[in-house]
Amino acid sequence: MKVTVVGAGAVGASCAEYIAMKNFASEVVLVDIKEGFAEGKAMDLMQTASLNGFDTKITGTTGDYSKTAGSKVAVITSGIPRKPGMTREELIGINAGIVKEVAANLVKHSPEVIIIVVSNPMDTMAYLVHKTSGLPKNKIIGMGGALDSARFKYRLAEALECPISDVDGMVIAAHSDTGMLPLVSKATRNGVPVTEFLNDEQIAFVTEETKVGGATLTKLLGTSAWYAPGAAVSVMVQSILCDQKKMIPCSLLLDGEYGQSDICLGVPAIIGANGVEKIVDITLTDAEKEKFATAAKAVREVNGDLKV
Ligand SMILES: NC(=O)c1ccc[n+]([C@@H]2O[C@H](COP(=O)([O-])OP(=O)(O)OC[C@H]3O[C@@H](n4cnc5c(N)ncnc54)[C@H](O)[C@@H]3O)[C@@H](O)[C@H]2O)c1
Ligand SMILES: O=C(O)C[C@H](O)C(=O)O
């Protein structure tokens, strides 16, 4: 099955690379606006195929969406990333126009496509695609929670001084420095709540470092991260293409779930061949419910800046 990745920059190329390396898609089409850039990235990646042992065909195009026709999944990574000191929300002015136009082009050539939105501010960009693309709500999925949960597990393993494969945990709510909600109450090491091993100070550290995970990397790299974002997208694409029905926190259009409507926010969902198969309703503590509502309020304010 064919996957399109729009934006052949840092994140887009990383998505294509991880998808190809996992060998579950027949073709990945990279699209970029910069002349020759997607073609060059595709050729470079294809020259890793014999070395890395994959058969996925990677092609590139400068803006020719006819080459994306018949895509089962399309990933939108086009747009600008933040620089150190910026918030993701500051990117809305440039990225909203790009995301809206890209989504329209994708749907024109692949009316049945499932879109994964990556460009920031992601929750608002996912909402924009819902408002403008005409796709049903199960076919628009924002990527944030998969990445933020991976960062949560990284910080938990560091604090627990244990292998990452020992830990489990999930981050929901907004993909923003302040609106992320790492679910400490549900995080475990081999099924044992992490609260049995970590004190309040350690938990506060893990929580805060998870929330500012993207900002920390942006400060270190001078631009935002790409390896873990690409890997997170590849997990979501695989769950769709292989109908794995994995439970992944994603930014989805809510219609009463978690007390919110007409907004995209990170919630656990079953991701399979139909895109969003089901939003999973989990019990939150009162404090978590309050934080979820506060995150929703902030995202609503950003959504208010959209001209839709
Ligand atoms: N949701 C997440 O978890 C997450 C994670 C990492 C990055 N991001 C976001 O992803 C976006 C991309 O980040 P990056 O580091 O890859 O940036 P980048 O600058 O490396 O790549 C972006 C690419 O988009 C291309 N582009 C711009 N306008 C386009 C258009 N109209 N059509 C096709 N291509 C177009 C650019 O030419 C560029 O190659 C940013 O908005 C960033 O904030 C989100
Ligand atoms: O931090 C960013 O701006 C990019 C992305 O949202 C991330 O979390 O890595």
Automatic annotation (TrEMBL):
Identify the EC number(s). Answer: 1.1.1.37
CDD domains (alphabetical): LDH-like_MDH
The residues that the entry says bind NAD(+) are G7, A8, G9, A10, V11, G12, D32, N95, V118, S119, N120
**Active site annotated at which positions?**
H175 (proton acceptor)
**Keywords carried by this UniProt record:** NAD, Oxidoreductase, Tricarboxylic acid cycle
Lactate/malate dehydrogenase N-terminal domain mapped to chain residues: 1-142
Tell me where on the tree of life, at the top rank, the source sits. Answer: Bacteria
Q: Cross-referenced SUPFAM superfamilies, in alphabetical order?
A: LDH C-terminal domain-like, NAD(P)-binding Rossmann-fold domains
- Single GO BP term: tricarboxylic acid cycle
Its top-level enzyme class, in one word, is oxidoreductase
Which residues are recorded as binding substrate?
R82, R88, N120, R151
Molecular functions (GO terms): L-lactate dehydrogenase (NAD+) activity; L-malate dehydrogenase (NAD+) activity
Q: Which reaction does it catalyse?
A: (S)-malate + NAD(+) = oxaloacetate + NADH + H(+)
List, for all copies, the residue spans of the domain called Lactate/malate dehydrogenase C-terminal. 147-299
Q: Which residues form a coiled coil?
A: none
* Family per record: Belongs to the LDH/MDH superfamily. MDH type 3 family.
Role of this protein: Catalyzes the reversible oxidation of malate to oxaloacetate.
The name this protein goes by in its record: Malate dehydrogenase
